[in-house]
TrEMBL record, chains A, B:
<dbReference type="Pfam" id="PF07992">
    <property type="entry name" value="Pyr_redox_2"/>
</dbReference>
<keyword id="KW-0812">Transmembrane</keyword>
<keyword id="KW-0560">Oxidoreductase</keyword>
<keyword id="KW-0285">Flavoprotein</keyword>
<keyword id="KW-0809">Transit peptide</keyword>
<feature type="transmembrane region" description="Helical">
    <location>
        <begin position="377"/>
        <end position="394"/>
    </location>
</feature>
<keyword id="KW-0520">NAD</keyword>
<feature type="domain" description="External alternative NADH-ubiquinone oxidoreductase-like C-terminal">
    <location>
        <begin position="351"/>
        <end position="410"/>
    </location>
</feature>
<dbReference type="InterPro" id="IPR045024">
    <property type="entry name" value="NDH-2"/>
</dbReference>
<dbReference type="Pfam" id="PF22366">
    <property type="entry name" value="NDH2_C"/>
</dbReference>
<dbReference type="InterPro" id="IPR036188">
    <property type="entry name" value="FAD/NAD-bd_sf"/>
</dbReference>
<dbReference type="GO" id="GO:0050136">
    <property type="term" value="F:NADH dehydrogenase (quinone) (non-electrogenic) activity"/>
</dbReference>
<dbReference type="InterPro" id="IPR023753">
    <property type="entry name" value="FAD/NAD-binding_dom"/>
</dbReference>
<keyword id="KW-1133">Transmembrane helix</keyword>
<comment type="similarity">
    <text>Belongs to the NADH dehydrogenase family.</text>
</comment>
<feature type="domain" description="FAD/NAD(P)-binding">
    <location>
        <begin position="11"/>
        <end position="326"/>
    </location>
</feature>
<protein>
    <recommendedName>
        <fullName>NADH:ubiquinone reductase (non-electrogenic)</fullName>
        <ecNumber>1.6.5.9</ecNumber>
    </recommendedName>
</protein>
Amino acid sequence: MQDLATAEQKRVLILGAGFAGLNVAKGLADAPVNLTLVDRKNHHTFQPLLYQVALAVLSPADIAQPIRAILRSPNTEVLMDEVIAVDKDTRRVTLKSGTVLRYDYLVIATGSTHSYFGRDDWAALAPGLKTIEDALEIRRRVLLAFELAENEMQETGQHPALNFVIIGGGPTGVELAGSISDIAKLYMKSDFKHINPSTAQVTILEGSPHVLSMYPEDLQKKALEQLAGLGVNVRTNAHVTDVKPGYVMVGDEKIDSVVTLWAAGVQASPLGKLLGVETDRRGCVVVDGYLHPAGHEEIFICGDLAHVEIDGKQVPGVAQPAMQMGTYTAESIKHLLRGEPIKKTFHYFDKGDMATIGRKAAVARVAWPFKADLSGFPAWIAWLIVHIFFLIGFRNRLSVFRSWAYTYLFFEEGARLITGSQQLPGWQTHEAAATATPDEVSTKP
Amino acid sequence: MQDLATAEQKRVLILGAGFAGLNVAKGLADAPVNLTLVDRKNHHTFQPLLYQVALAVLSPADIAQPIRAILRSPNTEVLMDEVIAVDKDTRRVTLKSGTVLRYDYLVIATGSTHSYFGRDDWAALAPGLKTIEDALEIRRRVLLAFELAENEMQETGQHPALNFVIIGGGPTGVELAGSISDIAKLYMKSDFKHINPSTAQVTILEGSPHVLSMYPEDLQKKALEQLAGLGVNVRTNAHVTDVKPGYVMVGDEKIDSVVTLWAAGVQASPLGKLLGVETDRRGCVVVDGYLHPAGHEEIFICGDLAHVEIDGKQVPGVAQPAMQMGTYTAESIKHLLRGEPIKKTFHYFDKGDMATIGRKAAVARVAWPFKADLSGFPAWIAWLIVHIFFLIGFRNRLSVFRSWAYTYLFFEEGARLITGSQQLPGWQTHEAAATATPDEVSTKP
């Protein structure tokens, strides 16, 4: 019965509320459609700043917003649910709760997730960074390592070396490495009596010959210099062969690690394969210039999940192209609604790339509005401005700005909270202590 | 060897970094002592605002601060650890990590925890509110209930009634009830397409004849009126006899509940009993006028853990007396260090009590600087001012002020994030949906 009332309106179903999905929904906010967006989370996460939640500069609510609060258009409904099946023939999507949704146009923008290269047992030992939950787990482990070291030192006068190992030397790996170095050397400087946090050693293990391989060579070099300046140890051509509690193996070499983080592999959301169309090696859906998988002009694939090639070059899986694909898809659907064909294929307008390395350290390849390769302080300032600008909501911009001011000017981190378990996998406590006799009581200096 | 260097300095050991413990440490920041503070958490939690983290107004970092960042005095060290034994004879405390700490003066201020009256199986079904983790769990459950109801409604056109049951009508129970009502009626008003969040029903089950029983009768009445105004259902003399997934039993009556919260029983930290001295029925340590347990003038019990009677009246387990006991104990220890006896017994300077009920609704018994019973908007304003003032750190005050401004002026809640599991114990999903045939596909209006 309900169907009759809206029989004339086409149903647009968007899966995923990342940059791509949100931009589709925003683009169609005033369109004469019935729009449903489904996401597993109730919030959109501003992923470029997720590492700052992990390293205690920002709070989750600074970079995440309820999807319902972003998409308030009367034609839009939001469901917090998970997709378990897509039937392209009957144009129906089944959700975990049992709900079945019909669509006329389907936009799949469910992004990517970690890939442990088939070694899913590594996941618990080396968390990656994709969700708020991931960020809080990384925060917990990194901060806890210092606390446990202080306890050990207080008791025995020694502690396991504070070696942090980051697997993967892409932007996320570099950001995590720089931030841990900042915490250890700047923000915790005077917080402990027994340990010296600045003795912490951060190592990046990168399998390829270069860190930040998507950047021009001169910026890679500048990034390496800045990492060296922070004391971060970078090892390229280092293929991790095993991850264990307390250490990592690179071939026959055992590298001790109190906290191991994963920033190496990325694979497409499983929805790509579920769809039953052509996917690439990472599970991304191969699409044509209109972002359609072969044979399905009613389906659009946007963001990280899309394998798009323009002039033989693959569009990278980062925020800018995801947003642009979202906007493009919304426009395309509007054309189709008016009965017009889609005229232009998707064009990626490359404004550049940037990655922070630490406080006052960054690299930026600026492609628009002028061309320039920046590094160091200017790149860092550019990074700050761009990221504040792209945050959703005035409230979050204000909050992040205030947090950054405190952290970068006053060396005070606002979100240094350890929540959850107080265990660290593989932490080597001094066993003897538990059986110490009263005569062996340790004392503080 | 390390011992020699500081042999002249007395060792003060503080257990717990709540209001009491922190105030002892602050009071001794300049004293010629060797001070160690031990807490299980790395942060101090401003408990009076914890319910605002639970109900998504504030972020954890707004009301919690790293203990190390608060206590920066050179004579003070902080350990994140747990006490497992206290030996009063040899004056030694053993921590979970194995560390053994000697003390000359011991301050125990480990507060209180939930009491499920021996029914610990209720804990998972009805979380209480003492820690940041508790607050996030309550937030998750409350927000998730609305999302699951929306899914059910979308699919089947009906959903389980959004009944929230709060067991306990003290300040925490009243605050939780009012906040859930605010979320449902004010902050989520236009967020859902299928459900009407304002149909949510909040019920307080209080075992005694009165809510807010520590307040004067006229304020209790005013509180009841304000709760009624918010649509909160208050049932007094309602003894909960069982808590089950999806419902609560009061005698033979079954009360449906999609989310049950616990604000009823409080018991002292187990350290009271571990100490092997006289405790009261709730496990609080019975102390003399100097806050000593009988026969131990080197031990001070502060805050909720202390059973202190002044003129036959027990000092309540809230923030103000805890702070005052902390300050008093620091002064007492300074006297003892100078070889002087402690002259005055502890005196509780009662400034009053206040509890919020919702946006613009509160009760306040003001005892200082003037005597007055306030309720409604004036009480709420007084509450805002007092709580901003007592927050630790300018940064947090600013952050909370901003969040309140957004929430109370613009009806926008900043921290409405669901993290963790997407299951709710006892949630009655529409089973038929899972086996629906394509013909039975549900549609949106």
